[in-house]
């Protein structure tokens, strides 16, 4: 677990020998080399097992450098979980922005029935505010014992 890729890239930006180029926000492109190597180490390992890296990134901080760092890593992960400060302030947990969060290639991880249910949930919740969507999903999940039951009951729950 790495908290955070943003801070790691900022630290490298302060310590590397300058490359002579500067990206928006004052970021030297050379500062991204080692963080990208670290994050890119996640993979399946031959003869079994895998290395999973869970990393955070700072966004909406008002820093252009943080935005540039986030954009450099945005498409490289297999999933994104966006936390929502307003949900956290309202004590709604988990404080996850459901509409911005997701897993790439869900179709490879889920059965057809599960995938279709996920897509239906996303369509229904996309029209709601973040708070309404989160509360609605939590309420629906609490009515079921497990994912299989949720998938079967979803049309009646929401």
UniProtKB/TrEMBL annotation:
GO molecular-function terms, A-Z: ATP binding; ATP-dependent activity, acting on RNA; RNA binding
This protein's name: Transcription termination factor Rho
Lineage of the organism: Bacteria, Bacillati, Bacillota, Clostridia, Eubacteriales
Transmembrane segments: none
PANTHER family in the record: TRANSCRIPTION TERMINATION FACTOR RHO
Species this chain originates from: Caloramator australicus RC3
A Gene Ontology BP annotation from the UniProt entry: DNA-templated transcription termination
Annotated ranges, domain ATPase F1/V1/A1 complex alpha/beta subunit nucleotide-binding: 1-101
SUPFAM superfamilies: P-loop containing nucleoside triphosphate hydrolases (SSF52540)
């Amino acid at each position: 677990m790495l908290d955070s890729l943003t801070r790691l890239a900022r630290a490298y930006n302060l310590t590397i020998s300058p490359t002579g180029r500067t990206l928006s926000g004052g970021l030297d492109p050379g500062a991204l080399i080692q963080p990208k190597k670290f994050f890119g180490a996640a993979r399946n390992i031959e003869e079994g097992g895998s290395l999973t890296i869970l990393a955070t990134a700072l966004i909406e901080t008002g820093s252009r450098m943080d935005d540039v760092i986030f954009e450099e890593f945005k498409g490289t992960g297999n999933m994104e979980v966006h936390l929502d400060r307003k949900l956290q302030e309202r004590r709604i947990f988990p404080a996850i922005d459901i509409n911005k969060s997701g897993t790439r290639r869900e179709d490879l991880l889920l059965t057809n029935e599960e995938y279709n249910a996920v897509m239906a949930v996303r369509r229904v919740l996309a029209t709601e505010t973040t708070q309404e969507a989160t509360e609605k999903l939590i309420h629906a999940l609490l009515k079921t014992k497990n994912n299989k039951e949720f998938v079967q009951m979803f049309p009646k729950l929401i």
